[in-house]
Structures are given as C-alpha cells and as structure tokens.
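FORM 7B: Structural annotation worksheet

SECTION A. Query
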Amino acid sequence: MHLRYSYRIYPTAGQRMALARTFGCARVVYNDALAARKEARRNGKPYQKSTDLQKLVITAAKKTPERSWLASVGVDPLIQSLRDLDTAYRNFFDSVSGKRAGRPVGLPRFKSRKDSRQSLRFTRNGFRLRGNGKLNLAKIGDVRVKWSRALPADPSSVTVVLDAAGRFHASFVVDVEPDPLPEVQSEVGIDLGLTSYAVLSDGQVIDNPRFLRKAVKKLKAAQRELSRKAKGSKNRAKARRKVAKAHAKVADTRRDWLHQQTTRIIRETQAVYLEDLNVRGLGRGRLAKSVHDAGWSTFRRLLEEKAARYGRTVGIVHRAFPSSQLCSQCGHRDGPKPLAVREWACGACGVLHDRDLNAARNILAAGQADRLNAPGGPVRPGVAIPRQARPDERGTHLGDLRSTGVRAAGAGGIPTR
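SECTION B. Predicted structure
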C-alpha cells in the first residue's frame, strides 16, 4: 500500500524564488494544455493525448519567445502538471459514466496564481535525498528538511506544497507492506455526536474538544484586522497570512487529536462499527459550524486507513438503521425522540437507557450480525455488510444499565525502519 509522509521544509530566500518560478511555470503549462484541449473540442478535433500536449506546450513552447522562460525550471514538474490534467479529465469521464462514486465531478478548470495553495510533484528523476539529510530538487538545490520521523522505505515521489499560511511541506509517497497487529477479542460500536464526540459501546466517552470554538475569539480578531487593510497593500498580505496561520493551527491541532484517538481505537479493538452519517447534509443545517468543527468524515477515513494497514476491520451501518430508537436489551422500537432527550426508558422492558450508549450498542449488534452473516447477505433491510477497509495511498464509563422497576434490554542517509 502507498502511504504519505509529510515534513516541514525550510528553503532559503533564493530557493523560495526558484520554487515560486516553478509554481508559475507548472501552472502555465497546465492552463495551456487545458486551453488546447478546449480549442480542439470546439473545432471538432479528437481528444489530444498527453504525449502530443507535452510536445506542444513544453517542448515546442520553450522555443518561442513567449514561453522561453519554461527552460529555466526543471522539466519533471511540468510533465507532472500534464498528468494532473489527465487525472482531472479521467475523474470527469468516470463521474459522467457512473464509474466514479460520490458527487458529480465537473470539467477541469484553469488554475489561478492567486490560489492560496500551490504544489509541485517530482518523480525519482527530479529529486534525491542527500546523505546529510537534505532534499535535493532539480534546478532548486538542497533544501533543509525537518525530519520528525524516519521514512519506512525509499520514496517514489515527493510533492512540495506551499499552503495559505506560507509554510512549505514535502510530502513523500512510500510503498509499504501491511503491518498487522496481534489480534484482540474486543469489538466496539461507536456513536458520534456533538455533546460528546464519541460514545463507545463498552462505555468509554470521548469528549468533544471543540477546537474551532475555543479559537473563535482569536480568529475574529485576526479577521477584523484583515478587513481594515487596504486591498493590494503589503499590510493586507501580512494580515491575510496571520488569518491563515490561525486557521492552520486549529486544523493541525484537530488533525493531531484525531490521529491519536483513531490510533488508540485501532490498537485496542479488532473491529469497529460506525453509522453512515450524512455529514454533507448536516453541514448545511443549523449545527453546521459544530459539525464541521467535529471532523467526523476525517475520523472515519483515518479509521479505515489504519484498519487496512494494521489488519483490523471497519464496518459501516446504514444511516437508515434506527440506532436511537431501538432498545439494546429487548430490541423493542420505541420511536423517534428529540435531540434534547438524553435518557429514555424502554416501554417494553422498562430499562433506563443513556441515548448515546444505547445507540452505540445497537450499532455494535447490527455490525456484528451483518459481519457474521456476510456470506448470506444482510440480516435486515437497509444495513450494510461491514467490509475490510480500503488501503491508503493518511474516558469515562457510563456504568451499567439502570432499571426503572417496570417489568415488561530512508534512503540517502535518512534512517528507515
């Protein structure tokens, strides 16, 4: 499987200028190739192949006065920008034909030099790792890297990314074998929420950290300062970077916390079952800010990626499954309840339930039933069969149930592991 390892890099002033020039050249090549394909379509000509475009917008363009400056940068990032265009077209065609799942993908669009994020990709021919730990990029030089951890294998490519906060990162792609963890007996169902981030079927509660809510005061101050700066001024550019750095800090903190939680869950459990939440729909409602702050989709993605690497199983229960309406003791369906109802008593057996813990136990039961019954199909309509996670290319206890009393449930000198 392919994994990405990202590190901060610190180019010098001259290297930053060379990277900015390469960013611009790669963007121009991408836009020229896109314009050529659009022109061919308008004229009724066949779809142009990538090799033909490479000869047109790179090889031949270098010999013209208008594009002669393309020769001042390495050719590898320019070729990779054409491959990115091919990928964009392929995604569009697969989306139109139904081969690609998810929401529809539109046609590729022209790139702007004002985009807050810029990136370049180098293959094996365009970079190397020096013995002193520096990253050598073609026609840019040796760049200092902050190695926070060792690479597990020799990288096949590296992507240099400039984010909105002005930080440079080097993202390496490495090919590694799965590393299964020793099997354990525990399996859990997880009910995600906003009051508590997650409640596990074994009684664990993960509190919601609310990173965006905690930083909203600083974000508002930085945004007000930005709004008072004159457009096009250097002070406005500084204020914009300040806002971007504040948002990047929130995102980095959330991502680090999600990695810690998902790693702990994967190490302690053999199988994890989640409900298929409609995050996109919830993100358009009155709780949109809290939903986006929670990062449920990232939580699920990290669980699936780590499960694939460490030999665990992630099962997804269909969103139509009434996890909050069923009694986890007797199976009686007690009907829908408002979000304000955090505890409820079963009308059949009289057991007093915590809403989230009861839902987590129902998710666990539904996921286990469908996993055991997978060869013969789902045990009930509307519940998906848990599957092995796809490979990657990244409390406190609530206590026992209470009864109401009513009877009626590295290469190049970089160390590698």
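SECTION C. Observations
Residues 376-417 have pLDDT under 50 and may be disordered. The first strand starts at residue 2 and ends at 10.

SECTION D. Sign-off
Analyst initials: ____
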